[in-house]
Amino acid sequence: MLETTLCCDEQNHWNELDWQFPSPFIVLWHITHEDIDHYKHANNTAYVKQLERTAWAHSHQLGLHFEDYEKCDRAMVIQHHDIHYHNPAYEDETIACATWITKCDKRFRLQRQFQFISTQSHKTLLTATTDFVCIKLSSGAPRPMPEHFASIYGAQVVDSTQLSD
Q: Which residues are CB-contacts of 111 (< 8 A; sequence separation ≥ 6)?
């Protein structure tokens, strides 16, 4: 698995793809042999792993790391995935993986949208929505987001009703 977080110039280049929302956070995913299933295209489990890697890369870019979660005994855990596979990806293909935070109640809930686009064909391969809930790491019980989580994630919310032009 090769994952690349983009620099500003590269980010601007891939911003020109047909994204569902403005100002995506983008990482590149190079499909390797390990990602391929018996149908000769990327396995759905590889996509789910890439959703997680993309979300964590975005959180890291925002300045939040797992150590920050541990220090305050909190975590944003997945409550629900809604994944739509539109087109297959093949070995050696490079995918631009984008995410946006589309909802954050600044208390318990956060929602991310994802869109994966082939850098070769410019076709959308996947769209997904993931709902997260804040929990106390030590117990698994729902707990409010720490203030710094709420302020960082809350400031990133895009208007999900506003499609990119």
A: 101, 102, 103, 104, 129, 130, 131, 132
DSSP code, position 42:
B
Q: What is the pTM of this model?
A: 0.89
- 79-130 pLDDT, tens digit per residue, is 999 999 999 999 999 999 999 999 999 999 999 999 999 999 999 999 999 9
Which domains does the chain show, CATH number per domain?
2-154 (3.10.129.10)
- A 10 A CB-CB count for 73 gives 13
Residue with tokens 């793809």: 17
- What's the rounded Cα separation, in Å, for the pair 143 and 157? 21
Residue 12's Cβ-count burial label (10 Å; 0-12, 13-18, 19+) is exposed
Whole-angstrom distance, CA of residue 163 vs CA of residue 73: 36
Nearest to 85 by CA among 139, 40, 57, 123: 123
Residue among 101, 115, 116, 114 nearest 30 (CA): 116
